[in-house]
Design a protein that fits this description.
Shape: globular
Number of helices: 16
Radius of gyration: 23 Å
Distance between the termini: 53 Å
Helix content: 25-40%
Order of helices and strands: HHEHEHEHEHEHHEHEEHEHEHEEHEHEHH
Structural class: alpha/beta
Strand order of the largest sheet: 3-4-2-5-6-1-7
Length: 446
């Protein structure tokens, strides 16, 4: 990828105080305990504050939001946007990431009297239209909803002086490249561009080539997946024991984020966990935005301890001090694995990623982990065993699993069909026997 700048970037910042930031902004940062810049911030802030285009390569959770947010707000402060014409734009791939960016930047925007607004799908477009009419200095948006507002002539981008693309690789993966390209063609051609991405692949290269001007390249991450504070474990299990194993991990003392392939499987497993006395919530694209926001809020404040999700939760959400991510269903590819795992070990914290693997999945999972640059610790485990508890904190659920349907939520997960198969009488009898044996093992502490 030809992203080497023709002129070198400025030296990294040794501290926030050494930067040309407004004093009131430094005061707010101090009040919030933001005292030392993370590597991506130190590398990019001097050039971003100087108005240069920046291409930042950094994994999610590395401090990217303030890396682009502080210069964006500092360079926008003191200006006033006209109705429907924002001065700065932050494009993100998901609603959850938009909310996260908004929450992170709001205290600094308020300090500088910069008007901030968020426009995403799933929420009232009427309120978003009203906010734009009142005047928005910095707009945080997902590509789909922003495109709708532009087409309705509720938003004009010709005054946007600073454009941020956050998690650009994810926007491309989700199919937003045409919309992102159309949006970039409408902002001021002489404006500043700040692009951040965990990977710099072909589609991101196209965005850089076509829309960034002599960017400073800052790459502060080690090789993909090589995060020293993150442990990776593969737990080899028997297919008939998958349900019991996942349930015991969910019953641990502490929060856990669990990934399954389909919306139907997520809902079914969440119902089972609740019936087992475990405080669990479901998150997937079939939920309305208010539902998703409410569930995330419950997980963050501890009202629920288990978040069961499809890949939607790997796209940009931030949970403080989340130390365990479990792939109940292994991800489809290396990129999905890294983004799922990126929900833990954020900003220097430690964390563990566990993947449950049945015999027929081992070859594909080994290939995927190799592509991700991951060398996991591999352990053969069974539900009820001390080894499972030692690795994950697993324990017996508060309520027994009688009449919970055996291994039913996991039928068909390997096919990603999302529809449980109809059981024959013979299969149902075999399932009940397997369920009784699994329950007996748990009672005996095996």
């Amino acid at each position: 990828m030809n992203t080497k700048p023709s002129t070198p970037g400025l030296p990294p910042a040794a501290s926030f105080a050494a930067l040309d930031l407004p004093p009131e902004l430094l005061g707010t940062m101090s009040d919030l305990g933001v005292t030392e810049p993370f590597p991506i911030q130190a590398a990019t802030l001097p050039d971003a504050l100087a108005g240069r285009d920046v291409l930042g390569r950094a994994r999610t959770g590395s401090g990217k939001t303030l890396a682009f947010g502080l210069p964006l707000l500092a360079r926008t402060a003191g200006r006033r946007a006209d109705a429907k014409r924002p001065l700065a734009l932050v494009l993100v791939p998901t609603r959850e990431l938009a909310q996260q960016v908004s929450e992170a930047l709001t205290p600094y925007a308020q300090t500088l009297k910069v008007r901030l607004a968020t426009v995403v799908g799933g929420l009232s477009i009427n309120r978003q239209q009203a906010a734009l009419r009142a005047g928005v200095d910095v707009l945080i948006a997902t590509p789909g909803r922003l495109t709708d507002l532009v087409e309705r002539r509720d938003c004009h981008l010709d005054q946007v002086r600073i454009t941020v693309l956050d998690e650009a690789d994810q926007m491309c993966d989700l199919g937003f490249l045409p919309q992102v390209t159309a949006i970039l063609e409408q902002v001021r051609p002489d404006g500043q561009r700040l692009l951040f991405s965990a990977t710099l692949d072909r589609d991101v290269e196209r965005l850089v080539r076509d829309h960034l001007h002599d960017p400073v390249l800052a790459s502060v991450d080690p090789a993909a997946g090589a995060v020293t504070t993150m442990e990776h474990h593969v737990l080899n299990i028997h297919g008939a024991d998958k349900y019991a194993t996942a349930t015991e991990i969910a019953a641990r003392d502490g929060r856990v984020l669990m990934f399954l392939d389909t919306k139907a499987a997520v809902d079914q497993f969440t119902r089972h966990l609740r019936a087992s006395g475990i405080r669990a919530g479901a998150l997937h694209s079939g939920k309305s935005q208010p539902q998703r926001t409410h569930t995330l809020g419950q997980f963050k404040d501890g009202a629920i301890t288990v978040l069961v999700a499809t890949n939607v939760a790997a796209r940009g959400i931030h949970i403080d001090t989340l130390d365990l991510v479990v792939n109940v269903d292994p991800p489809a590819d290396a990129k999905d694995y890294l983004h799922r795992g990126g929900r833990t070990a954020r900003a220097g914290e430690s964390g563990t990623v566990v993947t449950l693997v049945t015999p027929n999945q081992r070859r594909e999972v080994n290939r995927m982990l190799s592509e991700a640059g991951i060398r996991p610790t591999v352990t053969q485990v069974r539900s009820g065993e001390a080894q499972l508890t030692a690795l994950t904190g697993a324990r017996r659920p508060p309520v027994g699993t009688k009449n919970t349907g055996g291994n039913a939520p996991f039928r068909g997960l390997g096919s990603r069909a999302g529809r449980p198969a109809k059981e024959s009488r013979k299969t149902a009898e075999a399932r009940k026997i397997a369920e009784a044996r699994a329950a007996a093992r748990v009672r005996k502490g095996r």
